[in-house]
Structure formats: structure tokens, C-alpha cells
Design a protein that fits this description.
Distance between the termini: 25 Å
Shape: globular
Number of strands: 32
Strand order of the largest sheet: 1-2-3-4
CATH architecture of one domain: 7 Propeller
Number of helices: 10
Strand content: 25-35%
Structural class: alpha+beta
Length: 631
């Protein structure tokens, strides 16, 4: 869908500084979703003996205890907020559940009684837990605080926070406990740069410091999972690999989006290489969960958009990658059957996994978690409320389905969310709407050259939040409404022809989106700096509120705000966006050229057309930024 619904946004990217403090106390978005009746399984963890599996129900605010032998849920445990991650102690006696909210918590469940025995306060939208090998420390991602927290399990509290670049969603610890790998969901820089990519952060656990950010290939983003090999030599990371430099004229051969897994060499703390999970004529959209088998022989990856599992021969893949030379040997015999001749070719090779990967279709929708028990692969399917089971020991390896709850009638909102994340409605399955706006309809942080306003003038992807309430759509206002943009996106971005009821359902889903409280609030309220900034915002001498008016902070008009870039025409004007939830939608302006609010208010506002800010002191600029970040 990309920027068909885009709104020019003005805000500051989440900074990498992270403090221990009291996050906002506003109720979690999941608290209302729990009434929907849907389970939305989103995380799995199995006991060492493979007899029991725990399943996190994201929208039911529950954890299910699943008996593997009988294939039935034996019990459910109520959680205080949306459980987005699970970790299990080595002896299987304690289950650690990250319950995501503006004020999140880690719930420790006694697996004997299946009751919560301890609740530990954490940060904003806590997820992706991982236990240290000695079982003494639990590492969690405080996603919207931009940090990873270390929880001392003896003291039952956070003892350290380590700042990471942006939106950590998953962590993995090496077998020796020395290194912690962090998957950062999005990139942190300008979108109009030549190279734009998210990074994997490596943290030294002894010092509690981030020691390196490993950049993934250009266009890498929407990271979902990271998993370390049993021998501790490698890690795999799932992500989208966008071809954002190309005009969006076609989908064939991954022209717009490809789907990837990057391998990190942990002996060197460096990127080993990136392989594409797609085939030449069949995309494998939205790679999500990854698992490395205990014997190190397989890497399994779920494809949440095409509802599949890739089962990769890990030793064969690593050997194949190791044999790729850095440069062409003029004396070497040419293999005309291979698309890659050097290591740098691999991230563009849609055939590299041929012969080392089995791609298995699932009967269910939205696999977002994976667990390996012996020869069986289990996936948790978010939209089907089910588990898929792949028995690799069977004569014919196929997937079966286990329902986790009773069947429910599909509401328009639920159907719309499912379609938003469903790449099977796209030509050849290369991408879904979530490939450019993430699974919750926000951003990928990239500039895309869509053809609705001409060619050669890329625009930044923006959030879909409030898009239907703030027409027109897109930064140039070329779509009169978000409804029009949704239908255009299905046709011109997914290259699909779909029934009108699908577009209506997507409309309903986007209309249902609710803002998430800002991590910059203090106890759910504006900080002292933000209160000062609010006065500046509404000061007529500054003029912010002239255009960013009403309850949704926009006058629904287009203006010349002095932000034209090198690809814009001299007479172009830009739509005024809502400023709500801008704290998570960077980079900013129509071309993604502003990383911080200071950029927006100063260096990208040289003629005072985007608010009169030249007369403001540095402190006043900071205060104004603090207010905008709190909306």
C-alpha cells in the first residue's frame, strides 16, 4: 500500500538515549482488544522434554498450556496485558511472559501451579525475552524506549538498560552468555540517503554496553527475529529487503520488495551474508520467526505473509556461502547455472537457496511464531487462532492444523487486519500492505517512488493512523480520501484485482487504529518541558497551531512550508499531516530528510515557513520538540 495514504509528518525520531524511569501509565491498547474474542497466538516455547508447549494469546491476554501428546489446551493463564513474548527456565519450572503496554511488565508463572507468582515492572511495549545461559538474567526489549533491559531474577527487578538504535523487537544470547544480539525493527537515519538500512546491535553482557551495530544490506528493515546457532558461531535475522531505489512499476523478480534472512558471523561480529527467501517467480513475504534446530542442522523461518515455512539445510547453506569468493577469479571455471559468482551477488540471487531449502505451505493464516520439537515443526498462526504442525518424519511432509479455540465469525475489522498482512492477495506473493507499513499499519521509514504523482520523486512512507479522518491522502494530496487510496494501493501496489468487500474491510481496520501513548509522557501526562512547549506551539507568533489545528492537529489543507527537496517541482505544496503519534513515525517530512525535531524546526526550516522558529532559543526548541513528541 506504501504511501497511498501517506501524510506529511513532523516529528523527532526516537532517540537512542534510554533512561530508567517511570513510563506512561495509560492503559495498554491490548486491554480493549482482549474483548474481541480472538486469541491471536504470537509466541511459542516448549519444555525440554517436548511434552508441554506454552502459547501466548496476544489479543486475549492469556497464555495457554498446550499438551503436545493430546494436542489440546489443558489450561489458560490470564495476563494483565498483551503477552508478546515467552521464555522458559532450563528446568521448565518458571515461565517468563512479557506483557506489553505503555507500562509493561514481566510476569513469572510457576508452571507447576500455572499461576503468576511475581510481576516485574518494565518499560514501554516490552517483548522478545531471552534468558542468560546461567538462568540468572532475563533480557527484554523495551521497544518504544529504544532499549534492552537486563532483569536480575534474584532481585526481581530491572538492573540495567542499554540504549539501542530503534525499536528493538527480539534478542538472542550466545551459548556462553557473553554476547546479546538485538534485532532493531527500523532504521534510524534519513530516508533520502543512498544507503538506508536497519542494524543488528551486539551488546557485551559483562560490561552492559553496545559494542557494535551491524548494518544489513541497503533496504533492510522490518526486522522480526534473531536466533543464535547452537554452537554460537552464527546468528540468523529475518527481515524485508526493499528495493526502494526503483520506481514501483512492477513486482516481478522482487522489483519492489524481497524477503530475506541475514547470517551474522559471531566469531567476527560481522555480517556473513544475506540470502533471499523468495523464489524467482514466487515471493515469500513477511519473514517473521526463526528457529535453529538443537542439532544445528536446520534453520526454520515462518513467512507470515504467504503462510509458509522455509526449512533450510543450515550446514549446506553455510558451506555454500563460505565458498563464495570476494572477487571473480579470472581462471576459475564459470558455473553458468549459478546466478551468484561472488559473495556480493548473493543478496540479489533469487535462486541461491535452490537445493538447500524446502518451502512448505501451511493450511493456516499468519504464522508468527515457531517451535521445534523433535522432528516436528509447530507454528502459531495469528489470524487462524491455530497451530500448524509439520511432521518431517512423515513419508509426505505436509502441514496439518490444530484449532486453539472455537470458530468465530470474521468481523470486518479483523478481516481487514488479516488482509493488510496477507501477501497471497498480491501478485506472486512478493509483499503485503505490511511490507511497507509494518503489521500495525505504521511505517517502514523508506522513500518510495510511486507513480501517482509522476516518476522520479520518491516520498516517505507514513503511518495509516487517522488516515481516514484527515483527507486528502498522500503527501501531495493526490487522493481525495483514504478510501480512494486503499483501492488504488490494491490495484497499483499489490497489482491485484480484489472484490470491493476486501477494500471495505481494510478501511474498517484502518479506521479502528488507536494511538499508542507516547513514551515521552511522564505518568501519562506532559512533562514540564512539554508543557512549556505546548504554550510555544499555540503561540500565534510561532504559528504551529495555524495549520496543525483541531483535535487531530491538521487543517486538512496543503501549503508551501519551504521543505521542497531536489526531486520536487518549484510549485509543489504539501498536505498538512496530523501530529498524533509522530514520535514513532520517522524520518520526517515528505522526503524523509529530517531525522530529528531539531532538523524539522531548524535546518529543514531555513525560511521560517514551517513555523516561525528562528527567534526561539535552543531551550525553547527543545521544549517545543518535547511537546510534539508527547502527542
Amino acid at each position: 500500500m506504501k504511501q497511498n495514504l501517506l501524510k506529511l509528518s513532523v516529528a523527532l525520531i526516537l532517540t537512542s538515549t534510554c533512561f530508567i524511569g517511570t513510563p506512561a501509565t495509560t492503559a495498554a491498547p491490548s486491554s480493549s482488544r482482549s474483548k474481541s474474542g480472538w486469541l491471536s497466538p504470537t509466541a511459542l516455547v516448549a519444555t525440554a522434554d517436548g511434552k508441554t508447549m506454552f502459547i501466548a494469546y496476544a489479543t486475549a491476554n492469556q497464555v495457554a498450556v498446550f499438551d503436545v501428546a493430546s494436542a489440546k489446551v489443558a489450561k489458560t493463564v490470564e495476563m494483565p496485558a498483551s503477552p508478546l513474548g515467552l521464555a522458559l527456565s532450563a528446568d521448565g519450572k518458571q515461565l517468563f511472559v512479557t506483557c506489553a503496554a505503555p507500562s509493561s511488565s514481566v510476569c513469572i508463572v510457576d508452571t507447576g501451579s500455572n499461576k503468576i507468582v511475581t510481576t516485574i515492572p518494565t518499560g514501554h511495549t516490552t517483548m522478545g525475552p531471552a534468558l542468560s545461559p546461567d538462568g540468572k538474567t532475563l533480557y527484554v526489549c523495551n521497544r518504544f524506549n529504544n532499549c534492552v533491559a537486563a532483569i536480575d531474577l534474584a532481585q526481581r527487578k530491572e538492573v540495567k538498560r542499554v540504549a539501542v538504535p530503534r525499536e528493538p523487537v527480539a534478542v538472542a544470547v550466545t551459548p556462553d552468555g557473553k554476547l546479546l544480539l538485538v534485532a532493531n525493527h527500523l532504521h534510524t537515519g534519513r530516508a533520502d540517503a543512498d544507503v538506508v538500512a536497519a542494524v543488528v546491535t551486539i551488546i557485551d553482557t559483562a560490561s552492559g554496553r553496545a559494542i557494535k551495530d551491524i548494518a544489513l544490506p541497503n533496504g533492510s528493515g522490518l526486522l522480526r527475529d534473531v536466533h543464535v546457532s547452537p554452537d554460537g558461531k552464527y546468528a540468523c535475522v529475518t527481515h524485508v529487503l526493499a528495493r526502494f531505489h526503483l520506481p514501483t512499476t512492477q513486482l516481478e523478480r522482487g522489483w519492489m520488495n524481497t524477503n530475506a534472512m541475514s547470517i551474522i558471523d559471531l566469531t567476527k561480529c560481522a555480517l556473513f551474508n544475506t540470502v533471499l527467501l523468495d523464489n524467482v517467480d514466487s515471493g515469500a513475504a513477511n519473514p517473521w520467526a526463526a528457529a535453529w534446530s538443537a542439532d544445528g542442522k536446520q534453520i526454520c523461518v515462518t513467512h507470515a505473509g504467504t503462510h509458509e515455512v522455509s526449512v533450510i539445510d543450515a550446514p549446506a547453506l553455510l558451506e555454500k556461502l563460505a565458498k563464495m569468493p570476494a572477487a571473480i577469479d579470472p581462471n576459475a571455471k564459470i558455473d553458468y547455472n549459478a546466478a551468484s559468482r561472488v559473495a556480493a551477488d548473493v543478496p540479489n540471487d533469487l535462486s541461491f537457496l535452490v537445493g538447500v531449502r524446502n518451502r512448505i505451505k501451511l493450511p493456516d493464516n499468519g504464522p508468527r511464531a515457531i517451535a521445534l520439537i523433535g522432528k516436528k515443526i509447530y507454528t502459531a498462526n495469528y489470524f487462524s487462532d491455530s497451530l500448524s504442525v509439520i511432521d518431517q518424519a512423515a513419508p509426505n511432509v505436509t502441514a496439518s492444523s490444530i484449532p486453539l479455540g472455537s470458530k468465530r465469525a470474521m468481523t470486518a475489522v479483523r478481516k481487514g487486519e488479516m488482509l493488510w498482512n496477507d501477501a497471497t492477495m498480491c501478485f506472486q506473493g512478493w509483499q503485503s500492505c505490511a511490507s511497507c507499513h509494518s503489521s500495525d499499519a505504521r511505517v517502514d521509514g523508506l522513500n518510495w517512488d510511486l507513480l501517482n504523482d509522476g516518476i522520479g520523486n520518491p516520498k516517505n512512507s507514513k503511518t495509516m493512523l487517522l488516515s481516514h479522518k484527515t483527507p486528502p491522502a498522500m503527501s501531495m494530496g493526490v487522493r481525495d480520501t483514504a478510501e480512494t487510496a486503499v483501492r488504488s494501493g490494491i490495484k497499483n501496489i499489490l497489482f491485484a484485482v480484489r472484490p470491493e468487500e476486501d477494500a471495505v474491510a481494510i478501511d474498517q481496520y484502518l479506521k479502528s487504529l488507536q494511538p499508542i501513548p507516547s513514551p515521552y509522557l511522564e505518568n501519562g501526562k506532559l512533562s514540564a518541558a512539554a508543557q512549556r512547549g505546548k504554550k510555544i506551539f499555540f503561540d500565534k507568533a510561532v504559528g504551529c497551531a495555524t495549520c496543525h489545528s483541531s483535535s487531530v492537529f491538521t487543517n486538512l489543507k496543503s501549503s508551501d512550508v519551504g521543505t521542497r527537496g531536489q526531486f520536487d517541482k518549484a510549485d509543489e505544496i504539501f498536505d498538512t499531516p496530523s501530529l498524533i503519534e509522530e514520535w514513532r513515525t520517522g524520518p520526517y517530512l515528505h522526503d524523509g530528510s529530517a531525522v530529528t525535531m531539531r532538523d524539522v524546526l531548524t535546518t529543514r526550516n531555513p525560511n521560517d515557513k514551517h513555523g516561525k522558529t528562528k527567534h526561539l532559543s535552543p531551550q525553547q526548541i527543545d521544549d517545543l520538540a518535547a511537546y510534539l513528541l508527547s502527542l
